[in-house]
Structures are given as structure tokens and as C-alpha cells.
Design goal:
Elements (H helix, E strand, L loop, with lengths): L1 H15 L3 H6 L2 E2 L1 H5 L2 E2 L2 E6 L2 E4 L12 H4 L7 H7 L3 H6 L4 E5 L11 H43 L1
Parallel strand pairs: 1-5
Antiparallel strand pairs: 2-3, 3-4, 4-5
The structure holds protoporphyrin IX containing FE.
The site of protoporphyrin IX containing FE has 20 residues, from helix 4, helix 5 and helix 6.
Organism: Vitrella brassicaformis (strain CCMP3155)
Pfam families: Cyt-b5
Protein name: Cytochrome b5 heme-binding domain-containing protein
Length: about 160
């Protein structure tokens, strides 16, 4: 199984050029299949709809292997976010991506995107609101000053 998948991926990369890798990663994996890979020697997790085979990464995980093997074979999105993983940690997950979780084919963002989306949302709701008001206040101040300057000139 594993070998044929690897061969297929290699073939797709050779034939398809730049478009091949995302297509190869769109393998749809059911929750039942995920659940079978729940040990330290065979460890899959799902984060925000994408499935990662992190068996080889486990010994290097800075939080230790046990925290992950305890919840292996499951959707670990909440646990992953609760830790507040850094951007660097999110990018380290990318090479281990093996597919999308069934039902998340259209919405899967995986480890990397959610934090960026949060940042964008924060910028547009908080920052966007304020940056709309500031120019209006400046225009009002300039208008008032101009009014007083003209009024003073006309009295002298
Ligand atoms: C592909 C998946 C994962 C990758 C690549 C990853 C990577 C990392 C990295 C690089 C760190 C060091 C801190 C940082 O840079 O944020 C870290 C810390 C940690 N991770 Fe993960 N992690 C993954 C999944 C998980 C999951 C599913 C859990 C679930 C509980 C978890 C729990 C922790 C904990 C407890 C720490 C230690 C935090 C600390 O000491 O402050 N990680 N991880």
C-alpha cells in the first residue's frame, strides 16, 4: 500500500509538474481509517481538515511524543490550537501531510492557514474600523481651523 502510494506520487510529480503535489495530497481519508493509526509507530493526526502522518516527527516533537500519541488517530485541531503553536511549528507540519479528512474536502486548511486568517480578521475588524475614523477627525479639525482663520481675517 505505502509503496504504491509513494510510486504514484513520484509518477504524478514527474508527469504533472507544478500541479501534481496538491493533487497528490487530496487523498480523502475516513475517520475509521484515521483511527487505525493511533500508536507511536504509526501515528496519524488531523488538524483543521488535513491529515498528517507524523510518525517520523514524533521523536523530534518539542512537546514530547506522548501528548500526541495520547490523541493519535483523531482530529486534534483543538489541542493543536490550545498550545498556541508558533508559525514555525505550523510550517514544520507541511511535509507530513498525506490527505484530507472525509467531509473536509472543500474546507481543509491544515495547520498553516488558520493563524493567518485570524490575523487578517483581527486586522480588518480592529484596525480597519479605526483607520476609517481617523481621516474623518483630521478633516473636521482642518475645517474648524480654516473657519476660525477666515473668521479672524474678515474681522481685521
Ligand atoms: C503536525 C503536528 C505538530 C507539529 C509540527 C508540532 C510542532 C511543535 C513545535 C515546533 C513545538 C515547539 C513550540 C512551537 O514552536 O510552537 C511544539 C510544542 C508543543 N506541542 Fe506540538 N506539534 C504538532 C502537534 C501537536 C499536537 C497535536 C499536540 C497536542 C496536544 C501538541 C502539543 C504540544 C505541546 C504540549 C508543546 C509544548 C509547548 C510548551 O512547552 O510550551 N503538538 N510542537
Amino acid at each position: 500500500m505505502g509503496e504504491t502510494d509513494a510510486q504514484q506520487q513520484q509518477q504524478q510529480q514527474q508527469e504533472g509538474g507544478a500541479a501534481a503535489p496538491p493533487a497528490a495530497k487530496q487523498r480523502v481519508i475516513s475517520k475509521e481509517e484515521m483511527a487505525k493509526h493511533n500508536t507511536e509507530d504509526d501515528c496519524w493526526i488531523a488538524v483543521h481538515g488535513k491529515v498528517y502522518d507524523i510518525t517520523k516527527f514524533l521523536p523530534d516533537h518539542p512537546g514530547g511524543p506522548e501528548v500526541i500519541t495520547n490523541i493519535a488517530g483523531q482530529d486534534t485541531s483543538e489541542e493543536f490550537e490550545e498550545i498556541g503553536h508558533s508559525d514555525s511549528a505550523r510550517h514544520q507540519a507541511v511535509p507530513y501531510e498525506i490527505g484530507v479528512l472525509e467531509g473536509h474536502e472543500e474546507t481543509a486548511t491544515g495547520c498553516v492557514v488558520p493563524k493567518d486568517e485570524k490575523a487578517k480578521k483581527a486586522a480588518s475588524s480592529g484596525g480597519g474600523g479605526m483607520s476609517g475614523i481617523i481621516p474623518l477627525i483630521l478633516v473636521a479639525i482642518i475645517a474648524i481651523l480654516t473657519y476660525f482663520i477666515i473668521a479672524r481675517q474678515s474681522t481685521t
